[in-house]
Write a structure and sequence with these properties.
The structure holds 2 protein chains of 2 kinds. Chain A has 12 helices and no strands. In chain A, helix 8 crosses helix 10. The longest helix of chain A has 35 residues. Chain A is globular and about 70 Å long. Chain B has 2 domains: 212 residues, Rossmann fold (3-Layer(aba) Sandwich), CATH 3.40.50.300; 44 residues. Chain B contains 10 helices and 12 strands. A 6-stranded mixed β-sheet of chain B has the order 5-6-7-3-8-9, with helices on both faces. In chain B, strands 2-1-4 form a 3-stranded antiparallel β-sheet. A 3-stranded antiparallel β-sheet of chain B has the order 11-10-12, covered by helices on one side. In chain B, strand 8 and strand 9 form a beta hairpin. At the A-B interface, helix 1 and helix 5 of A face helix 2 and helix 3 of B.
Amino acid sequence: MSVALTIAGYALQEAVRRRVFAVVLGLTALFIALYALGVWQVFRRLADIQPPVGIEPRPFAGATIFGLSMFATMFLGVVLGVFLTLGVVQGDAERGLLQPLLVRPVTRMELLLGRLAAAAAVCIVYVACVYTALMLVTGLIGDWWPDRIALPAVELAVGVIWVAAVSLLGSVYLSGTANGIAVFIVFGAGLVAGLLGSIGEALGSGTLKTASRVVSWVLPFEALYQDALHLITDQTAGFTGVILRLGPFGGAHDAGPLLGVWVAGYLVVVVVLALAGFARRDL
Amino acid sequence: MPAALSVMGLEKQYDGVQALQGVDLEVATGELVGLLGPNGAGKSTLVKIACGLVRPTKGAAAINGTPPTAARARRDLGYLAELFRFPGWYSADELLALHQRLAHSAGGPSERAELLDLVGLEDATDRKIDTMSKGMQQRLGLAQALIGAPSLLLLDEPTSALDPAGRRTVRNLLEELRKRGVAVLLNSHLLSEVELVCDRVAIISRGRLVAEGAPHDLTQSRGVEIETETGREVHPHATREDVPRLVTDLVNSGHSIYEVRVLRTTLEESYLEAVEGDQP
C-alpha cells in the first residue's frame, strides 16, 4: 500500500512539476469567468423574455445553462484524467521511464493502482471545485440553485474516473497518442448517443431512444451525466420540468438505483483487465 | 549457497523471432561477468528477463535462488537499462530519494551523498536531470542502481554515453564493487573494457551462448616477439615458458635484446572468431 502511495505521490509530483496544474487552473479560471459573464447576461435579460405558456423562465434558464456547464465540467475533467493516464504503461515504457521503477520491489498492480489513485484524486478535486464554483456563480448571479447539489457532482466525478480508468487500460496496449485519440473517440461516441436520445425523445422514436440508452450504459459516463442532469431538476414540476429533462447534450434521465452498482462493477472489470494485460506485457 | 544470478534453459520468442534459444549462465557472488555479442544477439533480452521486465517463453532465471519478480529478488537487484530516462523535473537527490522509498532503503541522505560521490556527481546533488548531459545521466543511473546496496548489479551498456574519464570512473567503481562482494553482469560492446575488469566473459550469438570463460582463457597464444639489433623476430609456436631459453640462445649468439613480448590474440579477435563461427 505504501508503495502505491509513493507511486501516486510521484504521479502528482509529475503533474505539478510539469505545470499541468498551473495551466489547468489558469484556463479553468478563464472558463469560469466567461461562464459568469454568460450567466450574468442571461439573467439580466430574463425580464425581457416572454417564455411559452407553462415555462418558468428562471428555472428554465438556470437549469439549462448550469446543465451545459456540467457538460463542460465533465469534459474538462475527462481531458485532465486522460492526460494523466494515457501514457502510464506503453508511453512511459517507450520513453524508458517505467523500467527503472519496475525493477524495484514494486508490483505492477501497485504501480497501476497508484497511478489510477493519483488521477482519480486529481479528477475528484477538480470536478468538485469546478462544479461548486459554477453552481455558486449560477446561484449568486441568477438566484437559481439545483434541486440536488452533491449527488450530481459525485456522478460527474465518477464518470470522469471511469474514462480515466479506460485510458489507463488503453495505455497498456497503445502508445500515448493512439490511446488519447481512441479514448476521446469513445468519449465522443457517448456524447453522440446522448444527442441521439434527445432526438429520439423529440421524434418519439423508440429505436433511437433504445440505442441511446444501450450506448449510455455501455459508456456509463453518459448515463451518469444524464442522471446528474435529471437530479438538478428532479423536483421541478410541470411543463418546465418536462422540457428541462430533454436537457442539453443528451436528455436528462433518471437511471435508477442500479446505475451505481453497474458503474462500480464496470470500473472493477476495467481495472482488472488493465492489471491482467499489464501483468503479461514485456517491457 | 545459490548463485547471485542463474539462468537455466532460457528461451524467448517475440512474434516469431527467437531471441534466446536455451541459454544457461551463472554469475557467482562477487563475480564480474561480461556479456558480449553482436546487436540483436539477445543480450538485452537476457538482462531484462533476469530483472523480471520480460517473461521467458521457456526456462527460468533466479536471483539468489529467488524468481526475479519476487520482492526479495528485487531488493537484491540493481539495474541500469540500456535505454533509460529519468523524470527531468527531478533533481539528482530527489530521484535517489524516490528510489530509496521504492527499494525500502533506510540509507537516507548519507547513502545518497555517498553514491553521488562514488559516481563523481557530488556537485550535482540539486541539479535538475533535464539540465544534465547524457553522460551525467548515465552516472546518475549507476548511482540509482546502487540504491539499497544490491548484491547483484545488471548493467546494460553502462558506459555508452561516457567519455574516457567517465569510463575509467565506472571501471574503478566496478573494481570497488567487486571488493564489496557485489556480483555484476556487464552487458557491453566495449571489449577492451570488459577484458580489463571482468573475471569471466560470456559471448552470445543468435540467442545462444557460443563461448564462455575467463578473458585470458578465451584468448590464444600467438608466439613470442623479440626485438634485437637486427630487428623484430616472431617465434609463432613459442610460449611464455620458452622466453628464457630463446633469450639465452640469442645472447649466447652475440645479439643484444631490446624488447621481448609474449603475443596473444585479443579478446576482440576471440570474440569475432566465436561470433563469425556461429554464422549460418
